[in-house]
Amino acid sequence: MNSLKTVLIIDDEIKLRTLLSRIISLEGFEVLQAGDCKSALKKLEQTDVDVVFCDVKLPDGNGVELSKTIKDKYPLIEIILLTAYGNIPDGVQAIKNGAFDYITKGDDNNKIIPLLYRAIEKAELAKRVQQLEKQLGDKLSFESIIGKSKAIRQAIDLAQKVAQTDTTVLLTGETGTGKEVFAQTIHQASNRSKQNFIAINCSAFSKDLLESEMFGHRAGAFTGATKDQKGLFEEANEGTIFLDEIGEMSLELQAKLLRVIETGEFIKVGESKSTKVNVRIIAATNKDLHKEIETGNFREDLYYRISVFQINLPALRERVIDIEELAKHFVNIFAAKSNKKIKTISDEVNEALKQHSWRGNIRELKNVIERSVILSNGDEITLESLPAEINSRTPTNSKGKQLSAFDLASAEKLHIQKVMNYTNGNKTEAARLLNIALTTLYRKLEEYKISG
Question: Which domains does the chain have, with CATH numbers?
């Protein structure tokens, strides 16, 4: 691994450069040398460097200022400043400028290698996080959707087929099954991918506010409307609009949406003339719209217009074989972001995850894994880091006796564990929520062997 890492030494003293180069190269690193700021910056342009050792005083500049220049241009490079005796303030200023650390020239040779390895570790972490963020920010593709189960592959196949068209799509499925991810992926695979993808949750707004959000308004249309405002349909022109939880939309607004679908036109709140748009609509719901039609809560004509092409996203319990791969994916993301070297998930944890009902689906799994990564201290996710409702082990009391599911103490233990999980281990807050004294909570934690 070390042979792939590159270190640049910037110092005008040839003897020191040679000594440092020898010490570092013996560890298996590739070492570059530069005697001044100009040649150093040129080498940085030509080669990917991980760590820089930089002297304070250089023939054509100051190492403290050079540190800032390098960090501004190459933020992932770690810099270790070389200071002369009595020049420690320069080192402190360099750290303020983004340097990793500083050492005293000639006196701290024994610190060079340990410091270098720590700097390399930080640089590697920064690169991993950047890569993960890039992956998350990159355009979604159908290949990036995790899962080999028949149910998810069928959904992906349907989405791939409809993506290249302008057909309106209705995504159905329980909350947390990934409907917005599918909507974004369909958009990215379509001919509209270079245009806006606009998402709106119809359940997050009142009827009047939702209309204004969707279609925009004129100044003075209602109290607080001080200026003209574009609606999301206008923002999504030539692109895609994603109407999440469309089953929550009022009947009055459903009629206006139907007009947009049929004519491509809408009227802003407070305006009389219509605005024309070219927008692809992808809608989603976790409701049974057939039942909503029967009860009079959803327009049948609108349903047939939005469900031209319907894709049902399976619940996580219907694709159990995908849970292990999804969990590993989330572990990799959250471990990198929290600077933890978690490599595996124990077999017991994988089994417990597969046994859970996952009413919150992928969203719930993601939250559980994030919590487990935070709580884990080793290189493996273990049962101890799982919430009590997923940890399948039978509760025990302080004497090691197993508690049955019908035992009052068992119910109390599980409840305390859930509250502790909710407060992230804050005992004072947990005691307040449980409405018991803090001393009582400490006694219960010890009695039930609940780690706090």
Answer: 2-137 (3.40.50.2300), 146-314 (3.40.50.300), 316-393 (1.10.8.60), 395-452 (1.10.10.60)
